């Protein structure tokens, strides 16, 4: 007997094919598009974002082709609070958030899943590129599109009610299937950037909400090299856009090493000073197998993977890297793997 499944349909090709696959498998599928903007006209149009009027229409057309009921759920208020306001607050605190990860955690697999279960659905399906088998999350076979990192924050309970029908497929295979099924989104470009920043100008977006506050850019010994109008506009590892008054002694580029929101100071230095081997992370979530030997960690979406060991302190963990990592930013997720399998995740608090 099939399951009652709520298919989250963004208006893109991945979620459309995901919904089609589970409907074809005999499940009782209902499509839902999440309206995340109170004023979608202000968000970028076309295919670059995922909060546009065009996307809701594309999702409805796909549901019609598949032959499933379709609804739009207004999640704008929750999205504003849990994703946009969190994004601004994290930057104000000198951290670098990942809004896509937060949206998966707070919207798609908390707010939506809670409502779906209350309505009698058994599971929520999305078009994420990741494998899920027996409640265990693993990487997609398509490395360029793998999204297990942004799903690494999900709990075992949430994963037990999730379905990722594209788990064994590459993006090229998904597009070919969409064309065969007559889905008009087959050639629709992937979304890019941050969906709620209409023009892609993160610095301008933050300036409107946090204002401007002049501060100093210093080197590691405290020498003032320049000024800025808001420390929130910088992230650890950043090289471009520093606009410093004097070049380095060796002529090599400088990078952002740290951001101190209280003193509104940005510290810069050579690339070598970005290297860290020990990471402290908070709010760990263990959602995979218990075996924690032979671990690797990914520190950014589509970032490098490092061999590591962990010391579990309950509310926090220490991650000791086998090789130095660069540009590790507080606020990002550290997602732990055993091979391709996700073991758990935690939020980076500091590194040395």
UniProtKB/TrEMBL annotation:
A Pfam family it matches: tRNA_Me_trans_C
Reaction(s) the record says it catalyses: S-sulfanyl-L-cysteinyl-[protein] + uridine(34) in tRNA + AH2 + ATP = 2-thiouridine(34) in tRNA + L-cysteinyl-[protein] + A + AMP + diphosphate + H(+)
InterPro entries linked to this entry: MnmA-like, MnmA-like_C, MnmA-like_central, MnmA-like_central_sf, Rossmann-like_a/b/a_fold
UniProt region (Interaction with tRNA), positions on chain: 145-147
Biological process annotations from GO: tRNA wobble position uridine thiolation
Domain tRNA-specific 2-thiouridylase MnmA-like C-terminal: 277-348
Keywords tagged on the record: ATP-binding, Cytoplasm, Disulfide bond, Nucleotide-binding, RNA-binding, Transferase, tRNA processing, tRNA-binding
Site feature Interaction with tRNA, where: 128, 332
Protein EC: 2.8.1.13
Major localisation: cytoplasm
Active site positions, chain numbering: 103, 195
Residues bound to ATP: 8-15, 34, 127
One cellular-component annotation, GO: cytoplasm
Record's function text: Catalyzes the 2-thiolation of uridine at the wobble position (U34) of tRNA, leading to the formation of s(2)U34.
Family (UniProt): Belongs to the MnmA/TRMU family.
Protein name from the UniProt record: tRNA-specific 2-thiouridylase MnmA
Species: Nonomuraea soli
């Amino acid at each position: 007997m099939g399951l009652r499944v709520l298919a989250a349909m963004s208006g893109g090709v991945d979620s459309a094919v995901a919904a089609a696959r589970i409907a074809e498998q005999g499940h009782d599928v209902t499509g839902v598009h999440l309206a995340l903007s109170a004023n979608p006209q202000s968000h970028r149009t076309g295919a670059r974002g995922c909060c546009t009027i065009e996307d809701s229409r594309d999702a409805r057309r796909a549901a019609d082709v598949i032959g499933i009921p379709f609804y739009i759920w207004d999640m704008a208020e929750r999205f504003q609070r849990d994703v946009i306001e969190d994004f601004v607050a994290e930057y104000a605190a000198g951290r670098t958030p990942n809004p896509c990860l937060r949206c998966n955690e707070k919207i798609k697999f908390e707010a939506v899943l809670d409502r779906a279960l209350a309505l009698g659905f058994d599971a929520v399906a999305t078009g994420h590129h990741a494998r899920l088998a027996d409640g265990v999350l693993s990487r997609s076979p398509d490395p360029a599109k793998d999204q297990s990192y942004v799903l690494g924050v999900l709990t075992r309970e949430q994963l037990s009610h999730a379905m990722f029908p594209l788990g064994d497929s590459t993006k090229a295979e998904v597009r070919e299937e969409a064309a065969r099924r007559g889905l008009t989104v087959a050639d629709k470009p992937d979304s890019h950037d941050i969906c709620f920043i209409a023009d892609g100008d993160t610095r301008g977006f933050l300036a409107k909400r946090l204002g401007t506050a002049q501060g100093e850019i210093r080197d590691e010994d405290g020498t003032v090299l320049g000024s800025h109008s808001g420390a929130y506009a910088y992230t650890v590892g950043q090289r471009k856009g520093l606009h410093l008054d004097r070049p380095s002694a060796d002529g090599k580029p400088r990078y952002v090493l740290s951001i101190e929101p209280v003193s509104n100071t940005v510290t810069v230095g050579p690339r070598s000073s970005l290297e860290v081997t020990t990471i402290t992370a908070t709010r760990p979530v263990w959602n995979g197998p218990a075996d924690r030997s032979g671990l690797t960690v990914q520190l950014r979406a589509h970032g490098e993977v490092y061999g590591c060991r962990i010391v579990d302190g309950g509310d926090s963990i220490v991650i000791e890297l086998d090789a130095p990592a660069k540009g590790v930013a507080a606020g990002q997720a550290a997602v732990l793997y055993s091979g391709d399998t996700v073991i758990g995740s935690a939020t980076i608090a500091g590194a040395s």
